[in-house]
Design brief:
Layout (H helix, E strand, L loop, with lengths): L7 H10 L1 E5 L7 H10 L4 E5 L5 H11 L4 E5 L4 H9 L4 E3 L5 H10 L3 E2 L1 E2 L2 H9 L4 E4 L7 H9 L8 E4 L8 H5 L7 E3 L5 H5 L3 H22 L2
Parallel strand pairs: 1-2, 1-9, 2-3, 3-4, 4-5, 6-7, 7-8
Helix pairs in contact: 2-10, 4-5
Amino acid sequence: MINSCFPESILKRFFNSGVIACMTVENPLHAVPAAQALLAGGIDVIELTLRTPQAIESLHRITTEVPEILAGVGTILSPQQVEESLAAGGHFGVAPGISERIVKTAQDKGLPFAPGITTPSELELGLELGCREMKFFPAEPSGGVTFMKSIYTPYAHLGVKFLPLGGINLQNMNNYLQETATLAVGGSWIVTSNLLQTENWSAITDSARTASARVKEIRKKIIP
């Protein structure tokens, strides 16, 4: 068994939420209302991607004004972004790929971090770097839950867990959440750019509520 880079409290939040809502925010004024809308729908874990110049400001607004949210940072592609994420209050980080430099920076700075992997070789590199939880990305284009299960099996005894993201939606999330390899799925369908731009907070709440209810239904079948 390999030790986790994440505190047990965050791992429990991942599992209990079941879905990590992925957000790409263009307007920082949308960050807090979107986070509040997610909370109202039962999702309290997000991945805010660093794909816009406004991302760090948006993250800071969320961590300051909506402390109930477990605010993760996605698309971390440089050591500098690790430091910026921490300074803005980010609780954890993930990346689409695996970089030894970024993983070590996150470990040195104290940011719980999950690198992205899609192959056994990348998974083994993650293990060598001390990562037990990893982002399986892009999940569906890489072969979906069938492929995820096949690369998980040889490493299951080490305690490996995945955060699958990429092509996952309300229709196929069941397949992933039924697997012991999955901590939580990443969902970009819950907070779409259109909903942000039109400030349709009620739709975000409805989408979060539907996803949250689906998680509870699935987990009830797995855990009596």
